Amino acid sequence: MVIFTGTFEAPLIFGANIDTAHNNNVRRYLHADLSNMTIKLKYTYEEIQQLSSNLPTPTHAFHMFDGWYTSESGGTKITASNPITPSTNITLYAQWLGSAVVTFDANGGVGSMSNEKFGNTAQPISANTFYRSGYGFVGWNTEPDGSGTSYNDKESVTITENTTLYAQWEPFHSGTDYFYAKGSVCFVGTDERIVNSGIKLFSSSNYNRNFEIYYDFIELYGSNVNQAVLMNTKDETGSPYPGAVNRMQDTTKLQIKVDRATGTGNSYQSNQHETITFASLKNVRMIRINGKIYYSVNGGTFKETLDFTNYESTAVSEVEVAFGGAIRPNGTKLRPLRGVLANMYVGFIDDSITLADYENGYTAPRTGAASTSAHDNTSTLAVPKTLLTKLQTKQLSTATPTVMPTITPAATPTVTPTITPAAIPTVTPTITPAATPTVTLTAMPTTTPTVTPTETSTATPTTMPK
């Protein structure tokens, strides 16, 4: 046995070599099987005493550390309250519990997700791919009804026991003049998942009304069909009609395009604004204020697209706003998206709302259409003070106010119970060494530097130095 009297920082590795002189590059991989790999460390008696109260915690991929024991299976567990006092060399064995398996339940939705293994280190939950028609995904919970522990999608967590995570859903909210899909929808490039808001922004009865369209962009999945659509309210069949579309220019860029029909509808003006890379895309808002259409990305400045103030009322469109694809007036669906969008909204807004209001942080209430109420309980943005004053002024009435009598209830005495806990004795463990001369201890852990189990293990004892 070789005894090192100096130190060096290179970690121990089996089946390869680490070059510490060149950024710890791993090289010279072995193409063979190894077994019974063992490390022997030599400790003094004083070091063993210290280890008893400060044992390190090893890690094992997808397994949970149970503790240090005097035997590979069973034996005595060594802790600060149960220290070791060896008189001869001793080997400590790391014992492991099986990995925790997380099962995903669609909870009323459709689709499939593979089980995921967790250990005693934090890792992200797999991204949701379930889908439920008419619902938005709002997170995970350990109980179907949401009464258990909640987790966000892709949240980094530590799960130490077998667990089933149930998808949590919230139904789409809609009315005559608005549509709101709270939560996220996973689009997989199929027509049936295209979300139809049912709102016609450019119909004969609506073409002159102000509106807001909004959605959060989450991510894309792999390749998409040519010009896959994130949001569409435009018919591209026959003669061009007014409308807007947000679609993929390629696999990296979003194209925002707004068209309007003029005259009899046989000619049109198109304004294709800047393309935006998906890597920098966070959310998209498109509004119509006093005949002009603007858009904003990532909460930035609103940019004007086209002036719709004077287009012909005969050039109308029956297209309903759709997310994750396009829907023509005849019901044909096309250009489905592969990716995730969230918090999709479309609705009409009151004529009193101005561009300055939006630039100051206003967002349309998600509870109804053409609302002038300043009490928006579902909005994520605050209503600016200038707009709040305006809206409150509109609600003033000349009616004589009703004066309500003041009722002063009798005082309710406050009773504070006194709880005297029983004294908790202090226990100080005594460690009695077997001998004071130098004693050597050999810790023989079995190292498993990069282990990825293929199935759940109940107990895989691994000897780790302690």
> Which strands sit side by side, in order, in the main sheet?
14-15-28-17-22-23-24
Span of the ends, CA to CA: 20 Å
Helix count equals 3
Helix proportion = under 10%
Overall form: elongated
Proportion of β residues? 25-35%
Q: In the CATH hierarchy, what is the architecture of the largest domain at level 2?
A: Sandwich
Return the structural class. mainly beta
Parts with pLDDT < 50 across at least 5 consecutive residues: 1-5, 369-466
The average pLDDT score comes to 74
Could you please describe the fold and organization of this structure?
The chain is 5% helix and 32% strand. By secondary structure, it is mostly beta strands. It folds into two domains: 35-171 and 437-466, Sandwich (Immunoglobulin-like), CATH 2.60.40; 176-368, Jelly Rolls (Sandwich), CATH 2.60.120.200. It has a seven-stranded antiparallel sheet, with no helix packed on it. Strands 16-25-18-19-20-21 form a six-stranded antiparallel sheet, with no helix packed on it. The two termini are 20 Å apart.
What tags apply to this protein structure?
mainly beta, disordered C terminus, elongated, Immunoglobulin-like, 3 helices, 32% strand, 2 domains, 466 residues, Jelly Rolls, six-stranded antiparallel β-sheet, seven-stranded antiparallel β-sheet, disordered N terminus
Concise structural overview:
This protein is mainly beta and 466 residues long. It is built from 3 helices and 29 strands. The strands form 8 sheets. The chain has a 7-stranded antiparallel β-sheet, with no helix packed on it.
